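Per your request, structure below.
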């Protein structure tokens, strides 16, 4: 899975989290650093879209980091906010958030941090599949009904396959994927 790290003011926390995720077979990306606020915002949007989940370290949470967190919450991705207790204090806006996708996990040592990360990875794995409801024309539905009746494929298999084929042929999307690696 691909994770995005926010709280970039703390390189040590980023390196520690990257190591932990790498050991578990996952990747971690950081937001690029730039004085150009527009470029920063574009990178943030792209990296959120490209990520499966987001990890925020509260020790590096500046005003910009809090904005990034708020923007990420709006994107409806699972977010793990780690904070080292008792040194880190979280703002009331964060601690009282009712967002169901925000998981706040305090930790006192590396073992507790690893446990929080493992628990979060399980949550993310369970939430990755998305349901898509759509209105389709009758001729498409007739074809999908025929496929379901006369083949081993389901309607969802055919739609999924068609979307994957289009995505694989979409040069702009493939460029986006390479840019966000």
């Amino acid at each position: 899975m691909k994770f995005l790290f926010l709280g970039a003011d703390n390189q040590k926390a980023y390196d520690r989290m990257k190591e932990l995720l790498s050991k578990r077979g996952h990747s971690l990306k950081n937001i690029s650093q730039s004085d150009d606020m527009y470029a920063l915002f574009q990178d943030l949007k792209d990296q959120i879209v490209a990520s499966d989940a987001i990890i925020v370290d509260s020790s590096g949470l500046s005003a910009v980091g809090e904005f990034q967190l708020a923007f990420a919450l709006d994107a409806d991705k699972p977010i793990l906010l780690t904070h080292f207790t008792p040194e880190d204090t979280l703002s009331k806006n964060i601690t009282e958030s009712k967002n169901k996708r925000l998981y706040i996990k305090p930790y006192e040592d590396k073992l507790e941090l690893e446990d929080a990360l493992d628990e979060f990875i399980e949550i993310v794995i369970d939430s990755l599949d998305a349901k898509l409801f759509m209105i389709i024309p009758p001729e498409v539905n007739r074809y999908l009904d025929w496929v379901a009746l006369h083949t081993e494929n389901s309607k969802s298999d055919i739609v999924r396959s068609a979307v994957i084929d289009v995505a694989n042929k979409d040069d702009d999307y493939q460029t986006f994927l390479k840019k966000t690696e």
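The chain has a mean pLDDT of 88.

Regards,
D.
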